[in-house]
Design a protein that fits this description.
The complex is a heterodimer.
Chain A: E1 7-11, E2 23-29, E3 32-39, H1 47-51, H2 56-64, H3 71-86, H4 92-120, H5 124-145, E4 154-155, E5 158-159, H6 165-191, H7 193-199, H8 207-213, H9 217-221, H10 229-232, H11 253-276, E6 294-302, E7 305-313, E8 319-325, H12 328-339, H13 347-353, H14 358-361, H15 381-391
Antiparallel strand pairs in A: 1-2, 2-3, 4-5, 6-7, 7-8
Chain B: H1 4-11, H2 16-37, H3 47-57, H4 68-85, H5 103-124, H6 128-159, H7 164-173, H8 177-180, H9 182-195, H10 207-210, H11 220-245, H12 252-272, H13 278-302
Helix pairs in contact in B: 2-11, 2-12, 3-11, 4-5, 4-11, 5-6, 6-9, 6-13, 7-11, 9-11, 11-12
Classes of the chains: A alpha+beta, B mainly alpha.
Amino acid sequence: MDKQEKFIVPIGPQHPALKEPGHFEFTVDGEVVTSATARLGYVHRGIEKAVENRNWTQAMYMLERICGICSHVHATAYCLGVEKLAGVEAPPRAQAIRVLIAELERIHSHMLWWGVAAHEGGFDILFMYTWRDRETVMELLEMISGNRVHYSANLIGGVKFDIDQKQADAIRKGIDYLEERTRHYLEIITTDETFLGRTRNIGVMTSDQAKSLGAVGPTARASDVHRDVRIDHPYAGYDRFPVQIVTEKEGDLEARFIVRLKELFESYRLIREVLDNLPDSELTVKVPRKIPAGQVISRVEAPRGELFYYIESNGSDQPERIKVRTPTLPNWGTVLSTAVGLKLADMPMLLVGIDPCFSCNDRLVYVKDQNQSLTEKTWSWDDLRNHGIERYK
Amino acid sequence: MNNILPIVALIIFPGGLFLLTSGLAYEWVDRKLIARFQNRFGPRWFQPLADTVKLLAKEEIIPQGVNAFLFILLPVMGLAAALTAALYVPMAGLAPSFSFRGDLVVTLYLLSVLTLCLGLAGANSADRFSLIGATRTLTQVFSYEAPFMLAMLGPAIVTGSWQINEVNAYAQSNLWLIIAQPIGFLVALVGLMGKLELPPFDAPEAETEIVSGALTEYSGRGYALFRLGKNVELVIGLTLVAAFYLGGLASPLDFLWKTLALLLVLALLQTLFARLRIDQTVGLWWRIGALLALVQLLVLIVL
């Protein structure tokens, strides 16, 4: 045989390990992975373009729908940016409530994640238990906003919901229960032999690697990279209610679990602090319908890492351009570079280890050829639109 | 009359109908127990039957690139082997239908045929998940089979006979062998889990990695038969372990409570652990399982 045949295991676009469509090809030698590639873009939804046809208020609801798990941080990033452009600042109470809901959301996102990650490792009992306990925080969010997923707590210039004493007590009670459970799960994750066999020293990423690959969020913090927007550039109420950074040194899958779990204790502490010290003020300030022309960059810390918003206004009541980079995108590189040399069985957990959100990170890429000119191969907006109409006619 | 009894044995009891029914019933108990341990409701009592009926009614798709003859034959062979094995085992606590010297070895081999068929079915397919599943299935066979056999030989050696019936009788009249040979019991029980590819030894069919392993391309009839085969093997395996280690099976009541107690332990073990990687499985069996079983055997022989 003159040509070495490669045995490629395709994972996706449809595969039981993936909850969303994405395509990964792992070249394996027996059980050992020798190379890994990713192909994304199966769930591009054109949200960035869609918000350009909506006014500033409508755009917020559209952008919230980028992510079905961390909808609040998207709205927060957007509102903070637009408020900066408009030259207003939300009142302190509104900022505190933004922090409160963001932390509740972090709890629900992390609990969802470690359930899924445990399931990928075949540890279904942890999956079932965490998702049961996650209902507590979902119910709290529903109590505050009336919705379990898209709470829409934000407004440009403030928040929609106030927290009264009764709600505060319910949140405290829920947090107490969750804290106790999280302590229990932390013990399981760090002591269960079979689970450690699947996480300890798997997918180790050094601190330098994480930095050069541009990892963000818990993935980076598990490799001892001190990177957290809440601390580096406090936004909303985080200057009033500071967060302690949580990092781990090992950089393996276990560390990614531990970082996320320990972060939750920080969230619990923060939520209690916010509830105890809710500043008294209005909930909203008046924001003009037309936002002054200008550009702004807004960054917040989503549960998965740094969420980046670029907002451009042309002075009308509609945004000129909004660019979103979700934390999943910079983290893909870490998966592909740590995959080589591991076993095929580690792949699902490694993939899920960064807490990927496929449909959040899918963006249209506008490729120009080498001469930076638009050739026939390049599709314009009209071409794309016609293609869409033809295809789904 | 002489001709009717063997036919009854084959078709109704303990072969055929009884085995299939009890297999489905035990599958339900297993699923329900695991669900309750995981804080879920779990399936209703007729769910395994409904699954089987549904699968049997479905169109069977024979994929491209497989040997169609083998594709159809393998599930039938697997199920047939598992059903045959029941004839030498004290099903429901009654005397085995057939018995001869050395039937223990035959039974153990018959029980392995299903796994072999699974492996072959995966290798027969052109699908990449099936191929990896088949490799893992066969790798796993080599890891648990030897310790499992050694664990089964322990009681046979103290009895001085390789006839299941006699081992069963010996177990009834003596101290429960689980007390005399605890290691053997453990290896046998865990070996059974490996045989049935139950979690945490379900790497060959790890859904998050290789979809459904060797059975990925099976649908409809073939899949139903493989599932039934596994259920039947679960019942036979439980019966064997109970007969050997839990003081034998003297009556149907004995059979019921002993096998169900074993199933409870099995379900607990299934929920407690994360899935082992195939290299971890092999390591576990050869480094710990086989060694322990060997030590036990040596002790028995020397004594």
